Fold each of these.
Amino acid sequence: MDFKQIVRDVLLTEANELERAAQNISFDIEKAIDLIINCKGKLIISGVGKSGLVGTKIAATLASTGTSSFFLHPTEAMHGDLGMIGKDDIVLGISYSGESEELVQILPHLKRLNIPLIGMARSENSTLAKYSDVFINIYVEKEACPLDTAPTSSTTLTMAMGDALAVCLMKRRDFKKEDFASFHPGGSLGKKLFIKVDDLLRKENLPVVSRETRLKDAILIMSQGRLGSVIITDEDNKVFGLLSDGDLRRALMNEKFSLECKVEEIATLNPKTLKNKELLASDALQVIENYKIQLLIVTDENDKLVGVLHIHDLIEAGIK
């Protein structure tokens, strides 16, 4: 049995259903977005079985991207948890058939409470669709299951629709990377999106010399500084240059090399600097990688030295 071909067929079947859906967007997405944006309460997702599992994921995605949202199982709603839905809330109901008994049972109560309803199902003639203020069609022509019965393509499309809804809301709200960071302060993702340059900046006991410093003295300070470089400043404390171990190795190859020369004679003048210490550390790492440097010098608006950010500091902080 060729399992690789089976995997290929499943992926292509689901991809084809996504492509077909992308070419046939007939529902009023703008009305759905307006309902959610203007909602003063929460967006509550509800569904049963596989639809419920997908709904849980959609609720999590929405909550992490700026839309206050949570999942409510319709059975629990019928046994007391309906009170979790407030008059200012909105409901997104998911049922591929549109006839899931548990979900259908709460629909009249939502209407009684004047709760706006967005429905996801395969048919506009379904009960869920008829109760919905906005209906999102998630019909698929073929499930990836060989029996064409197990929810496969349909759950993939439903999840993708949830993602599309979340992205539309992010665009509408102008949701930025910094906003996303505030919802993910922990873990590697949080570190990447939340930690700023100023949080990792070395500001004390920096290896700094003047332009007139002799090379042999600069090398001593370089060794003490443990950064592999020496920062050169002028009389106004403005950054003038940077002497790296690479600069030193290249100078050693010169026949006229002398430890008595001034450090500025072999240093890199006008090195790459950064003026925005509020920049995300992950973006600073991108600068370091783009310029193929190890040390990023941070200055104020007047080019005066504020601190330095070493690539090792970023790695140790888990910034990738």
Note: The chain is about 45% helix and 15% strand.
Amino acid sequence: MSDTILPLEVLDRAIGHKIQVLLTNDKEFHGTLVGFDDFVNMVLEDVEEFDNEGKKETLKKMLLNGGQVAMMVTES
């Protein structure tokens, strides 16, 4: 049996957990992953948004466009 983990499987395991998402425009989001689709569009709750100057904004819920996602990190 292979130890290969597919990208969507990583996302599936992260549902309900805090994640960090870096977009291609250098914005960064930290929040709890609520759900996602096959295009890696993600719904986050209790989100902190950081722009490229380090400014922070807090949002209750948001939808991220998967086409703009450069990297995602799960927080343990």
Note: The chain has a mean pLDDT of 92.
Amino acid sequence: MNVELERWLERRGVTVADVAEIVHSLQLPYNPDLTIEECVDSVRTVLGKREVQYVLCTGIALDELAEKRLLPAPLQRIMEKDESLYGVDETLAMGITHVYGMIGLTSFGYLDKVKPGIISRLNDKSTGEIHVFLDDLVAGLAAAASARIAHQDPRATDYSEDGTKA
């Protein structure tokens, strides 16, 4: 399903490389030797998780249905306006962020506020496209892939039971 999901993302204008660039920018201050290839690998690993696949498919399908004006009222209007109080889009994306722990949640909050890279383009209302879910799902995917890298960093400090460095 990974390859198919990458096609779904590409159909909506998002590539794995776009997400990897965000991951790279998040982790580079903490891991100066990090390569973009490692970030691509991390994004693809997160995409391999079944729960992530289900969340992405659901959000992308809802965005596409909204663009075709196939959702029932009042949901159609909420999606067209990208109603700020809706919150379901962020809630769905948080399912992705939690795959690698709480650090993903803090990164998601940052990405949702700053909207770097592809997230900014997806959030651009002037295109006529509806990405109510996808902008947040991409942020969630980048946050999870970034958290995955942080958890695997061999320079991270391990602590013993008494709180001292192990």
Note: DSSP finds nine helices and no strands in the chain.
Amino acid sequence: MADTTSIDPRNGFNSTTKIFHSLRPPAPLPPPSQPLSITDYTLSLLQSNPTFSPNTDFLIDSSTGHRLSYSDFIRQTHSLTASLATILPPPHVKNQVALIISPTSFHIPVLYFSLLALGVTISPVNPISTKSELTDLIRLSNPVIAFATSAVSSKLPSSFPLGTIIIDSPQFVSMLQNSSSGVIHRKVNQSDTAAILYSSGTTGRIKGVELSHRNFIAITSASQISRFTRDENASASPQPHPVSLFPLPLFHVFGFFMLIRATSLGETLVLMERFDFNNMLKAVEKYKVIYMPVSPPLVVAMAKSDVVLKYDMSSLQLIGCGGAPLGKEVAKSFAVRFPHVEIVQVFVIHAPL
């Protein structure tokens, strides 16, 4: 335990140990020995939120305007979990990895939460990966089952012990509509691997990074602290419902975590199947987006591109920048154009807790 008397309250620096400490209050974590999946933890936070309404929109397709409510999302998750439980063995059979290769769609959050509830390790990959790249990724994660769209399934280089399920098939849709299914509960330890996500390969061969349920529980809990702090600092006037735009791919660690975070907070997510800068700006204007998680190149584009001036960005309040450090000069340029928008660095923990 650090000697708190030696910690500078301005910056968290401990002059005795020469270590910087967070100035935020500690996150209230469940006991590590308590069986708990990130799915159950996230949904428990969502449903305990006094402002949460099941009729709230959870997902909006930025191009079509199609919507999925939280009640339908939860229903589909329970239904898919029950359907997959008949295919996938129980969690005591270790090293169950599911490869997922698909662009962003409404089905992906449901699939993630269902597999995680069953104790299956998810391994989402970039749908534009080549056959050679997929071969390397499969060698790293050794999946027992694959989930893919019909457009990309032909790139899978091999068969899997439990087969391949096509996400845009009638079979998968029927799994989402299993009205006779009850809620399936499986024992999932927090120390169990929740996801295998991949490095970009810029410094050598692509590497798989294991993240446990405990990893995601910890950073999700920390996001709740941030929410309560914002609530305490908010004015008495009614605040707009949080609408987030996701230009991030859901197979990436940044997009994956931000999906979990937004779900736990009951936010509405506007999804983009394919990123396009103009369409991103159009979506901010159309859906009154107040928050976006982005990468540094997007911050540069928003700060410098004249295209931005064609759209109403007045709803935007917060930008979370992650994936790489944000340069000081870029942040200054952004602040000049968007003085009403707060910009923060987002970090995702990769090491086991």
Note: Residues 106 and 259 are 12 Å apart (CA to CA).
